[in-house]
Amino acid sequence: MTDSNAESRIVSASREIAAPAHEIFELIADPAQQSRWDGNDNLAEAPTGQRVSRAGEVFTMTLTTGAVRHNRVVEFEEGSRIAWLPAEPDRQPPGHLWRWEVEPMSEARSRVTHTYDWSQLSDPKRLERARATTTGKLMASLDNLARLAEEH
Which InterPro entries match (predicted)? Predict the structure, then answer.
């Protein structure tokens, strides 16, 4: 059973990008690249050498506020899908999830979908920030990602 409140807490945006799926996925699966395309003004930097290769891995990211997040990868399919749950170090994830899906349309074009799901978010201090993560901010990330991927 899904309630309407939970449904309003899943935000998604999609667009076509003129680049091969594997090139786009490399930009997403390497946390060190993520601050280059973040349209949510949230990601500052991540150490190199953390390229995600399977579910269960954890990568570290520093936010623009200086806070550190450990991101547990909960979905992974090489070249097509990755999702993670961010959390403060040594804490359980509060229940919001970031997902990226890359679907090849041809050798040189791909459809990319970015989803922010905060339907399970349990930390009331994070609700305002979660509500501020709109389709427009997700689309800004997609547009930034497209610019980087299409440069190659």
Answer: Polyketide_cyclase/dehydratase, START-like_dom_sf
